[in-house]
User: Fold this.
Amino acid sequence: MQNSTARNSNYLYQISIIGLLFFIFGFVTWLNGTLIPFLKLACELDTLQALFVTFAFYISYFFLAIPSSQILKNTGFKNGMALGLLVMAVGCLIFIPAANMRAFPLFLTGLFVQGMGLALLQTASNPYISIIGPIESAAQRISIMGICNKVAGILSPLILSSIVLKNANAIEAQINEATDAAVKTGLLDQLAGRVVMPYIIMAIVLAALAMMIRRSSLPEIDTAAESSAEGAVSGLAAGRTSVWQFPHLVLGAVAIFVYVGAEVMAGDVIGIYGKSLGFSLDQTKYFTTFTLASMLLGYVLSIALIPKYVSQQNFLKYSAMLGIVLTLLTYVATGSTAVMCVALLGLANAVMWPAIFPLAINGLGKFTQIGSAILVMGIAGGALIPQLYGLLDKSLGHQLAFLICMLPCYLYILYYAALGYKPR
Assistant:
């Protein structure tokens, strides 16, 4: 009885630590929804240039995911997570000279470095939370992590926008009406300076959390040994010499790519989408929070329903269908109804990462760690699909561009949920 209690206590401790990390993921990641309109105004950018915020942040996952798996082999999970937090802190500090010089490329550098740290954290934490319990309930555990992530995501744009986009409409009007170049520059410099203090505070918090993780008693998990046992039972890994010999993993990486692209479109691009519909900057700065609130509802539903009432792959299937319906509605709707449909895509997106990730790494055996890194590389979809939207928006208009970018994503995820996830 004592051993059972100790094991349960240890399990809750591990879940709590990883939950804290997922909170950090969410807080930093969903700041982009505020940074896009902020930097568009402060650095005098057009829509396509402003969307390089998501490009710089998410493309780092593509380049850093596999190196992250190698780093984790050398450092172990705990030290690797601490290192990831420190790298993120450095990325936050880069915002100080970027704001002082109002240099957009330097802001992008800071975002890329933050993404580097997050790539390391994601590569460590996602297989950790998947393997820590039965694979059948992995989506439920990741959904719990998703709640931590999205609660932070709801808070972060509210907090940052209240600081950097306070009285945004009035400031935008002053900048547009300024005829003297020196006055205009002074207004822009003053606006850019608003971002300095929040990012200094974030850097301090991230460094403190790194020290806390480093000194914690978070246990190491041998993912190769754990997953080899799974692979031996299922027979999937037997006789395979390459991670690319698992079609359900490769198809899962594509599913992650299109899912993250769709999630970033619904969460970060919704502000630009709303502005194109005629909403003011003071209104659109809250739109990301609406998307994340609907995602939070989706996570709660998945925790209640998976796996007791519905399997994770069926939940994924229904979510993809909802995404298809809502995407079609955004095309035919206008005004606040169209914005509401985009925000409700958060509900459709909520279970996608929690369901796709464990389905894709199921039965990989000794290839689990590199397979996890390949899936994390798929996060680059958040870099490329918004860029495609920015290009199409110029020639086709915002609603048709949104439809062309989003509908294929949900159709592919529906295929993966119906057939692609099955191990061969």
Q: What stands out?
A: The chain has one domain: 2-420. Residues 2-420 form a domain with the Growth Hormone; Chain: A; fold (CATH 1.20.1250.20).
